[in-house]
Amino acid sequence: MGKYKVVVTGRIMPAGLAMLKEHCEIYQWEQTARPRVADLSEWLREAEGLFVSTNIPVNEELLAVAPRLKVIAQPAVGYDSVDIPACTNRKIPFGNTPGVLVETTAELAFGLLLTAARRIHEGWDWVRAGKWQPGVLMPFGVDLYGKTLGIVGMGAIGSAVARRAQASGMKVIYSNRKPRPDQDALKAEYRLFDELLAEADFIVVLTPLTAESRGMFGEKEFAKMKPTAYFINAARGAVVDTQALYKALAEKQIAYAALDVTDPEPLPADHPLLTLSNILVVPHIGSATTETRNKMAMLAAENLLLGLAGKPLVTCVNQEVNYR
Ligand code: 8YV
What we know:
Layout: E1 4-8, H1 14-23, E2 24-28, H2 37-46, E3 49-51, H3 60-64, E4 71-73, H4 84-89, E5 94-95, H5 102-117, H6 120-128, E6 148-152, H7 156-167, E7 171-175, H8 183-186, E8 189-190, H9 193-199, E9 202-205, H10 219-224, E10 230-233, H11 242-250, E11 256-259, E12 279-281, H12 290-308
Bound molecules: 2-keto-D-gluconic acid.
The site of 2-keto-D-gluconic acid has 9 residues, from loops.
């Protein structure tokens, strides 16, 4: 039997690539610049499978030039760059990678919180700049112990952050579309969104980007937070109105922000946010460990190979068109 024709839109971890290579003829976009549909259209015309990074949206324009697609897989849990109804209309199952990145992403979110609170990154800059001298003190941080953490979006990653916070002596509250009745969430107290904003000392955002959550943190929301509040975003940049965040930080309406995700992404080096002293930004590395990125690539490759063989994907977003 011939090999399946598969388009890969970006870099792919070796473990995933090895799985695909066995069964597929691969057309891979290897440039660092993001591809446009026109760059891939010749390959997409023949492709039966699409292994897509978040470097190109999956939309009507792309699907229209890929009439033979049987399956799409993406090594990411968030699928805000994918038009799921458009895939479903064409009966194309879309696989994401939930589960395998939960603990890794929670580590980063909690790490950002801890780093910002205790100024670890500023301490390192201080030492490197030769400022560690007798009698000279760098600005103090704040404790986590005894404080309240508010988690916005209590899914699997939120629960994993909650466990870490509780082990550090924090009280955990959360807001979600609805209260969760399961054990993990029971150890945290449910709050309405506005109540959480007013009560939390630290806010960690982990909600998926949807039409409802886009821009859910704007001027009004920052105004409701404590002036001592720390704001951590490990979800998607567009959940936050960037200008409003800039204003809240510049005017000290809130104390500090630590971001794994920004809008835009990547954040240009001359962006106004980066002129502030009360912010820490890292380049979207929530799932970026070698182990986890390999697991994500392998799960995405497994989904793709299953779909190509007409078998059910392991983790399918649009179950109604998954193979049976
Ligand atoms: C991805 C992420 O690795 O899974 C997600 O939704 O945000 C990250 O873990 C990133 O989007 C690159 O694919």
